[in-house]
Amino acid sequence: MRIDLHVHSNASDGTDDPAEVIRRAGAAGLDVLALTDHDTQAGLAEARAALPEGLSLIPGMELSCQLDGRSVHLLGYLFDPDDPAIAAETAQVRDDRTYRAQAMVARLAELGTGVTWEQVSEIAGDGVVGRPHIARALAASGAIAEPADAFTPEWIGDGGRAFVDRYAPYLARAVTMIRTAGGVPVLAHPRSPGYEIPDAVIAELTGAGLCGIEVFHFDHDEAERMRLSALARSLDLIATGGSDDHGSFNGRGLGADVTPDDEYHRLIGMARLG
Predict the structure, then answer these.
(1) Half-sphere exposure of 243 (CA within 13 A, CB side)
(2) Residue 98: inside a domain, yes or no?
(3) Tens place of pLDDT for every residue, the chain, 274 residues?
(4) What single DSSP character describes residue 220?
(5) Residue 198, in any domain of the structure
(6) Which residues contact 227 (CB under 8 A, 6 or more apart)?
(7) Which range of residues forms the domain containing residue 203?
(8) Rg of the Cα trace of the chain?
(9) Beta bridge partners of 186
């Protein structure tokens, strides 16, 4: 099977609506897709309604967390969507995302970019606003050549001139929340630049209920994938993979990285035990 467990729609910072994501998944020959928008599951109903025969949809979310004052991401799969702790936490994260984005736009205005909150709001639509929306507005204003250029110290990269921090739960607490709600917590791209999670921390998180790590991701080269696979085996963690597709924003394509069949079945089994 071809199993992509890390995909975004315009319910957060992807460019395609959930129905279009599903259409693209079918065209890419996927058998299983997890919709993992940032801090929301608002796109799931539309995605389910668009499912063709032969494609399975796994409900998920990529939760924004913090570790030692840095931003890190946690993928949560198959948890109870009505869990009150998760609902309260994600609502707070989404609200703070908006306040933060408004503050970043104000700083960009002071820097003479011409970017306005109205522009960013139009790009985000009903989705959870994030830095990629601001990056697209910056590119449209002509301040930068393309959205990727926004993530530098000059603009909205971590610690940059227009960067503003935001609220996020501590990683260990988020792991416990997902597991308590019957779900399967998996660390997202734990070796991505700026999002690195040390092996010792990963080992500690297994005690909080961590079930897996995302091994197969475009930020991980072959040597890193081998190291993470060995770490996963040593800690009895699931080794997942996904494209981290955001539509035209990153252009890598659904199914660019996938999860092995046996690891997927382990994940499903853990959710049933949740």
Answers:
(1) 28
(2) no
(3) 999 999 999 999 999 999 999 999 999 999 999 999 999 999 999 999 999 999 999 999 999 999 998 999 999 999 999 999 999 999 999 999 999 999 999 999 999 999 999 999 999 998 999 999 999 999 999 999 999 999 999 999 999 999 999 999 999 999 999 999 999 999 999 999 989 999 999 999 999 999 999 999 999 999 999 999 999 999 999 999 999 999 987 767 999 999 999 999 999 999 975 4
(4) S
(5) yes
(6) none
(7) 3-61+73-88+184-273
(8) 18
(9) 75, 212
The domain that contains 38 carries what CATH number?
A: 3.20.20.140
Answer positive or negative: Cα dihedral of 101, 107, 110, 112.
negative
Whether 233 maps to a domain, the answer reads yes
- Domain tally, the chain: 1
State the DSSP code for 148.
G
Which residue do the tokens 């460019």 mark? Answer: 15
In a domain, 222, yes or no: yes
